[in-house]
Amino acid sequence: MAECTHDCSSCGEKCEKRDFHVNLRAGSSVKKVIGIVSGKGGVGKSLVTSLLACKVNKDGFKTAILDADITGPSIPESFGVGEQRATAIENEDALNPVVTDSGIQLMSMNFLLQNENDPVIWRGPVIAGAVKQFWTDVAWKDVDFMFVDMPPGTGDVPLTVFQSLPVDGIIVVSSPQQLVRVIVEKAVNMANMMNIPILGIVENMSYVKCPDCGKEITVFGKSNIDQIAKSFNIPVLARIPMEESTSRAIDEGDVEGIDCQYLNEAAAKVEALLK
Predict the structure, then answer these.
(1) Is 216 exposed, middle or buried (0-12, 13-18, 19+ CB in 10 A)?
(2) CA within 20 to 30 Å of 40's CA: 107, 180, 202, 204, which one?
(3) Which pLDDT tens digit goes with each residue over 115-157?
(4) What are the start-end ranges of the E strands in the chain?
(5) Could you say which DSSP state residue 152 is in?
(6) Which residues contact 245 (CB under 8 A, 6 or more apart)?
């Protein structure tokens, strides 16, 4: 029998479809799971994850972030909690998440390391297992929306998340460079193969606004995100500019203090899943 590709539509085997979803620990509650994905690194998945979790939280929903980028976690620093550590639940083989000032629940590999700059030198299956345990062994408390910050690409971790967690939809993060179509296409094709709904695209680093005249400067050239989105029949949910204030807030661990109106449409798309 050939190795399973999990694409049942092109499979000639007679096996039964299996449900690989794993359960939350007893007492945990997560209503909706949203994956933040991209076909390559460096486009701003962690930024979009953090900003979107903050925006939906400010709208009155309880949010959480599962940092699935095990070898390169950046979520803790964005929230200014990089020095905190996850606490074990007494008499249970489970952990409490770290909770931010505004009440967002976080779980990241950095919360489990002795030193936050210690490298995680693991092979793929071990990394994927850790992501699964972030779902099964953490006491997630009454979460309306959990955002999963994915590592780039279509490897072990995205596959584990799509198979093991009840993902209700994904948001694809891209940038304006010419290779954006490849970025989007990889993520869209994987989601379609795994039967995961695609909520839309967020373009990061879309432009820089001149501080004197307000003109939008397209540093990476003219974006073709609208045409690409149309070709895949998915909406463009946001265009996030490059702003010094945003960069400074992230560096200072104050992502919760950013008033990001660019993500209003994306937040509304997510929040509609509970209506």
Answers:
(1) exposed
(2) 107
(3) 777 888 888 889 999 999 999 999 999 999 999 999 887 788 8
(4) 30-37, 63-67, 87-88, 95-96, 98-99, 105-107, 143-149, 167-174, 198-203, 208-209, 216-217, 236-239
(5) S
(6) 258
